[in-house]
C-alpha cells in the first residue's frame, strides 16, 4: 500500500475540518458493502452534503489521489487480502468518499428531487406515502439514489429511465456541475454513459411521477397475477409496492442482516442479449441439452441489443443458470459463497466468505452456462481492485 504523502495528509485534514465531512481511519469496506466483502482503504471520508461530496472529490482529484466514490455499496465487488494479484493484506490503494447527502424534496405535482446519498427504498416509500406513483415497482432495491441512473436500475418491468427527469452531474474532468437530460445519458438496459467510468459524479436526481397515486402500467406477468390485474393496467401504487416487497423478500432480495441470502450484490448477472441472428443457434443448443419442449419454453424477448442498434433477443440469466445445472444453494452448505437458497441469480456470502470465493463461484457459473448453451453471462456489479477473468 502506498504511504500517504504529506500533501495528501494535509488535504484530508482540511476536508475533515469541514462540519459536513468526517474522516475515519482503518474503516474496512466490508462494513459498507452488501456482500460484506472488501479491504481497508487509505482513508474514508463521509461527505454529508452535495457541496462536501463535490469538494472532497475535487480536492483529491487535483492532488491526483485515487478515489472510490461510495454510494450504498450494494453493487460492488471489492478486493481484499484474499486476491493475491490485487492487494496485499487487504489494504486498498485509494481514498473513499462516501456519499451521504440524503435530502429528499417531493412536490405536489409529481416532481421529486433527491440527493445522491439518499437511500433508494426510503425515497420509494416516501413517494408512495405522498400519493405519487411511478417508483413502486422498484421497491426494495438496495443502494442509493445516485446509483440508479448510472445503472438504469430496473425491476418488474419498470426502469428508472421511464420516470427520470434529469440528473445533476459533476464532470470530474472539466469541473462542470450541471443538470443533464435523460437523452444525454445514453440510458439502456442496466447501463448508461455514466457506468464504467469515473468522469461523471451524480450529485442529485429528479423524477417526474404520477400525482394520481397510480402505478406505472404493470408490465411484469408475475406481478400482474399477484395483483389480480391485467398487464398494462395501472393500480394503486401502495398496493403494487406491498406486493413487490413480498415478491422480493421471497427471493431474498430485501436486505436483512439476519438472512445470509441477502448478503449479496442482488442479481449478479444481467440478462444476456444475443444478436437475433445467433438466437436460433442458442435455442438449438438448449434443445440438444434439454429437449425441444424446453427450447420452446425458454424465456426470450425481442429487444434492440446492447447499444449496437441491431435487433437482439434478451434471455433470462436465472433460467440459463438453473438449466446449466446450478441449483439454489449451490455448491452446498459448507461453501463460504453460495447461490442463494431462494433463487439462483444471487451469489451470497454465508458469513465468512472472501472475495476470492465469490470470484471462483462466479467464474464457475459463467463457464457452466457458456459451455452448456454458448451464452456468455456478464456480471452487473462494479469491480474494485479485482476482476472476473475475461471480463472487459
UniProtKB/TrEMBL annotation:
PANTHER family: UDP-N-ACETYLENOLPYRUVOYLGLUCOSAMINE REDUCTASE (PTHR21071). Belongs to the MurB family. GO terms for molecular function: FAD binding; UDP-N-acetylmuramate dehydrogenase activity. Its EC number is 1.3.1.98. GO terms for cellular component: cytosol. The keyword Flavoprotein applies. This is UDP-N-acetylenolpyruvoylglucosamine reductase. It catalyses: UDP-N-acetyl-alpha-D-muramate + NADP(+) = UDP-N-acetyl-3-O-(1-carboxyvinyl)-alpha-D-glucosamine + NADPH + H(+). It comes from Dietzia timorensis. Residues 37-212 form the FAD-binding PCMH-type domain. The active site is at residues 190, 267, 380. It is found in: Cytoplasm. Its cofactor is FAD. Cell wall formation. It comes from the Bacteria. Pfam families: FAD_binding_4, MurB_C. It is an enzyme of class 1 (oxidoreductase). Pathway: Cell wall biogenesis; peptidoglycan biosynthesis. GO terms for biological process: cell division; cell wall organization; peptidoglycan biosynthetic process; regulation of cell shape. Keywords: Cell cycle, Cell division, Cell shape, Cell wall biogenesis/degradation, Cytoplasm, FAD, Flavoprotein, NADP, Oxidoreductase, Peptidoglycan synthesis. NCBIfam families: murB, PRK13903.1.
Amino acid at each position: 500500500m502506498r504511504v500517504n504523502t504529506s500533501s495528501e495528509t494535509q488535504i484530508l485534514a482540511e476536508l475533515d475540518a469541514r462540519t459536513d465531512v468526517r474522516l475515519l481511519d482503518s474503516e474496512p469496506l466490508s462494513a459498507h458493502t452488501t456482500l460484506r466483502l472488501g479491504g481497508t482503504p487509505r482513508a474514508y471520508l463521509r461527505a454529508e452534503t452535495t457541496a462536501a461530496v463535490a469538494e472532497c472529490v475535487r480536492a483529491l482529484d487535483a492532488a491526483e489521489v485515487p478515489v472510490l466514490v461510495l454510494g450504498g455499496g450494494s453493487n460492488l465487488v471489492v478486493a481484499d487480502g484474499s486476491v493475491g494479484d490485487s492487494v496485499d493484506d487487504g489494504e486498498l490503494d485509494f481514498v473513499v468518499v462516501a456519499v451521504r447527502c440524503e435530502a429528499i424534496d417531493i412536490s405536489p405535482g409529481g416532481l421529486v428531487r433527491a440527493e445522491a446519498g439518499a437511500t433508494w427504498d426510503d425515497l420509494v416509500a416516501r413517494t408512495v406515502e405522498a400519493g405519487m406513483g411511478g417508483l413502486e415497482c422498484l421497491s426494495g432495491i438496495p443502494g442509493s439514489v445516485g446509483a440508479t441512473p448510472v445503472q438504469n436500475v430496473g425491476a418488474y418491468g419498470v426502469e428508472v429511465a421511464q420516470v427520470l427527469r434529469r440528473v445533476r452531474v459533476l464532470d470530474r474532468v472539466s469541473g462542470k456541475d450541471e443538470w443533464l437530460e435523460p437523452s444525454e445519458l445514453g440510458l439502456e438496459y442496466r447501463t448508461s454513459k455514466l457506468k464504467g467510468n469515473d468522469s461523471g459524479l451524480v450529485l442529485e436526481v429528479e423524477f417526474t411521477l404520477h400525482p394520481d397515486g397510480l402505478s406505472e402500467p404493470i408490465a411484469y406477468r408475475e406481478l400482474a397475477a399477484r395483483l389480480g390485474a391485467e398487464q398494462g393496467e395501472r393500480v394503486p401504487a401502495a398496493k403494487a409496492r406491498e406486493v413487490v416487497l413480498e415478491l422480493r423478500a421471497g427471493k431474498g432480495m430485501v436486505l436483512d442482516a439476519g438472512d445470509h441470502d441477502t448478503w449479496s450484490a442482488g442479481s449478479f448477472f444481467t440478462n444476456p442479449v444475443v444478436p437475433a441472428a445467433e438466437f436460433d443457434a442458442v435455442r438449438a443448443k438448449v434443445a440438444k441439452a434439454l429437449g425441444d419442449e424446453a427450447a420452446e419454453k425458454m424465456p426470450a424477448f425481442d429487444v434492440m441489443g446492447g447499444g449496437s442498434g441491431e435487433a437482439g433477443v434478451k434471455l433470462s440469466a436465472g433460467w440459463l443458470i438453473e438449466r446449466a445445472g446450478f441449483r439454489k444453494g449451490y455448491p452446498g452448505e459448507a461453501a463460504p459463497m453460495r447461490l442463494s437458497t431462494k433463487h439462483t441469480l444471487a451469489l451470497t456470502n454465508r458469513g465468512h466468505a472472501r472475495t476470492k470465493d465469490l470470484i471462483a463461484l462466479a467464474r464457475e457459473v459463467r463457464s457452466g452456462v457458456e459451455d452448456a448453451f454458448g451464452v456468455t453471462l456478464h456480471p452487473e456489479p462494479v469491480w474494485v481492485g479485482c476482476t472476473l477473468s475475461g471480463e472487459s
